[in-house]
Every structure is written in C-alpha cells, then in structure tokens.
Amino acid sequence: MSLHRLLGFDVSVPDPDALATWYGALGLEGTPNDGYAGGDGGGRVGLDEGPFRRLVSIHVGADDDRDLEAIARRLADGGAAVERTDEGTVAVVDPATSVRMRVSAAEPERRGPAVPAPEEANRPGTTVRANRRAPGTEAVARAPRRLGHLVLGTPDLAATRSLLVDGLGFKVSDEIDGIISFLRCSTDHHNVALVSSPVPLLQHYSWECDDLDHVGATATSVLRRDPDGHVWGIGRHFAGSNFYWYLRDPSGAFLELYSDLDQITDDEAWERDGRTEFGLDRIANAWGPEIPLEFIEPADLADLQAGWAARA
Ligand SMILES: [Fe+2]
Predict the structure, then answer these.
(1) What sections of 28-184 are H helices per DSSP?
(2) CB 46 within 8 A of CB 58
(3) DSSP label at residue 121
(4) Domain of residue 193, residue span
(5) Which of 101, 187, 306, 310 is most buried (CB neighbours < 10 A)?
C-alpha cells in the first residue's frame, strides 16, 4: 500500500506541562516539540499550548515521492487546497475539523523485539501450566510499545471520510454508515477512526501493549496514582478485536491501552474472511462494561464548543 504507517499527531492543550508529566509517568519518552513515543519508538504525539484541547494535525507515512505525487493529484482533483513543503510533505486541511493531514515519504516502521506467543493458559480439562503461578501475576507497569491509532470526532463524517479515503488513500476496515469508520494506513485494523461529533475532537488515542497483562499492570499503575482516571474497561472490542482499557489524560482526552488488535496483511482476505457486518449492539464492544456516557459525550464538551465558537 502507498500509505504504510502512522507517524503521529499533534495536539494543543491548555496545560501541556501537566500532560508531559503524565506521559513521563506512563513511560512514554520524548519532548513536547519532538513528540512522545512508546518503548519501540514509532509514532509520536507532539504537544503545544492552546486555549482548549484540540487535535492540530495527523501525520502519516507513504512509500515514496511517486505516492506523494499521486496523493496530491487526487486531493487536487477532489477540489482540496493542497500544500507542499520543501521537504516534500503533502498537506491538506480537512475543512470539517480544521485538522491538517500531512503525508511524507517514510521508512517502514521499525518494531522492537517480537513478543513470543503466550504460553497456553489453563482451561477446564486442559492443564498446560502445573505447579506454578501464571507469569502474568508478575506483570509490572512499563511503557506501552507504540502509538497505534487515534479517533477523530468530526461534524461532517462523510466529508472527512472522503478526504482520508478518496484523497489520502486510507483503507476502510469496518464501518457503520454515518456513525463510525475504522480506517487504516498500515496493517493495523485501524490507525484513524472517525466518529460523528458536534465539534472537532480528539476522542481517544491508543497505545499498543504486549498483551492483556501489560495492559492491566500499566493501567493499574496509573490508577493507583490517579484513582479518578478510569474511564472504561477492561473489555474486548468487536471492531479490531482488541482488549482495551481507557484512561483519562490530564487534558480530558481518553488514552487507550490495548493488545491483540486484528492485523490486515491481505486486503482481499480481510474482505472475504475477516470483515463481517455488525450493528449498534456491537459498536461498543464484544464484552465488557457498558459504554459510559462520558465516552460518547465528554465532560468538557461545553468548553470545546465554546473554544471553537471563540475561534470562529
Ligand atoms: Fe481505540
């Protein structure tokens, strides 16, 4: 595929120092300007100061300059105002969200050491681990591996979807028409998902962990410092299949720790064997707690609406 990785995104928030400190406690490394990344490096989250929390830009990587030319042509054919930088980056601002979408030629993502498949768990009638505790009982909090995806709330889902899919070349992995679209620019089931929202919004962003024990130990460590930071989990999504646990970061955005996301290495095989229709009964999860109202309508929505109104 021409697009092959999520390079990161930038946000502006009223108190970037508080967010930077929280990221440090989570084990992310970086600086506000260079962005924060997980233990494997990969995608970065850049921080800047602004009057209300806002997703400023999304950055994705394409294979080479020919891909950039093709993307710029498609965007221009669709009527978008395409920006080019001296470094060759193609950029376009999504009119619905004011988010700048940037595409650059980039090397393939270098991943850290592979995580071995888990030892089989004991099941009724099947004992594969006898006379010792499960390794997961020793799990400790540690940095997530890498940035996986973000979810963008948009007042015009169809327009933002068209820009990303028809213009930039994202692929659709799953969707419920008019409600949510899971889009990928790598083998991850989704790197950017779009949801309808009354104002542009970073709804959540997500960091990959090794496994469920890594998710659990790391989330637990955060919540011992900040007991009010729990939002939703633990559960398993239907779309993407991943385990999830959502926390609230100091800016008010939701940070997801996840593991075991669907990987799509063959587009045709996914369409044939993997992708199945689903409805509102599975939009939240396959199992887990009920989706909290806050997840649909964030507590700071009025502040965000005021911020966007003042900006207009
Ligand atoms: Fe997610």
Answers:
(1) 65-77, 157-162
(2) no
(3) P
(4) 3-107+142-311
(5) 101
- The string of pLDDT tens digits covering residues 273-292 is 999 999 899 999 999 999 99
Q: How far is the CA of 80 from the centre of ligand 1 (A)?
A: 28
Domain assignment present for residue 115? The answer is no
Look up the CATH number of the domain holding residue 185. Answer: 3.10.180.10
- Which of 299, 295, 297 minimizes the C-alpha distance to 284? 295
CA of 150 to the centre of ligand 1 (A): 7
**Chain position carrying tokens 């911020």:** 307
Predicted structure pTM score: 0.96
Q: How far is the CA of 261 from the centre of ligand 1 (A)?
A: 10
CA proximity to 180, closest of 301, 58, 283? 283
Instruction: Confirm whether 239 is domain-assigned.
Output: yes
Distance between Cα 91 and ligand 1 center (Å):
25
Lookup: tokens for 193: 């998902």
Report the separation in Å between the CA atom of 5 and the middle of ligand 1, taken as the mean of its atom positions.
16
- Ligand 1 geometric centre to CA of 132 (Å): 34
Terminal alpha carbon distance of the chain: 37
Query: Does residue 174 sit within a domain?
Result: yes
Give me ligand 1 centre to Cα 256, in Å.
6
Q: Is residue 151 part of a domain?
A: yes
3-state secondary structure of 212: helix
Number of domains making up the chain? 1
Ligand 1 centroid to Cα of residue 151, in Å, is 7
